[in-house]
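Category: protein sequence paired with discrete backbone structure
Discipline: computational structural biology
Format: plain text, a pair of labelled lines
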Amino acid sequence: MDLCGTQMLRLSSPHFKTLHLVRHAQGVHNIALEEKGEKPESEKLFDAHLSPKGLQQVSERRNQILESGLLNTVELVITSPLCRAMETSIGIFRGQGYVNISEDFAKANNFPPIVALEICRERMIESDEDALWQDKEREKLEDVATRGLHFVKWLWERPEKEIAIVSHGIFLQQTLCALHGKVGIPLEDSLLTRFANCELRSIRIEKSDMEADTLMTCNCRNYVTPPSTSFHSHA
């Protein structure tokens, strides 16, 4: 499979999972940052919707995964709960015309379940009102990386073999860098660079990767590991 930068998938072991990592499409906050220098963590931009260009990117990416057959193999989609990520995940893996549908309809049409989890959201900020906000200080990159490793460890414990993750550029990049630098998974340099909007990269993780000491002792503050069986998907 060759979808915008995929790892050379290792075929030596049957004990593996394939992860498809997608950065959200362009949001209105991206435009504000590029044109006005406005910070994306500002109150009006933090949970930004997709821009018209972002919606077009989603449509193009959906067409690509339909042509590749990827839509038929992904068993589960995990998304950040922020609007731009959820709009991207629904648009790609269900289609922009299928926002408010029942789970029965989704199953009947072979749509993978889409689940929103806090653990893979944008760099976190904390305040007294929100346990994920930190007195207007953004989460350190090393904490983002640790959160990413904790998330990958949880993904490994799930029964699905092929999972898509729709999240944010920094979270995805820091997770890949940690898997490469701290866990020792061989990843090409092209996989460790910044994600473009709506870019998809695929990697394969093996059982031996998950047995690394870095993951066995992985821990991260300020969030609780999500349940492995009880889900409420966003449609």
Remarks:
- The helical segments are 28-36, 52-68, 83-93, 103-108, 141-156, 169-183, 207-210, 213-216.
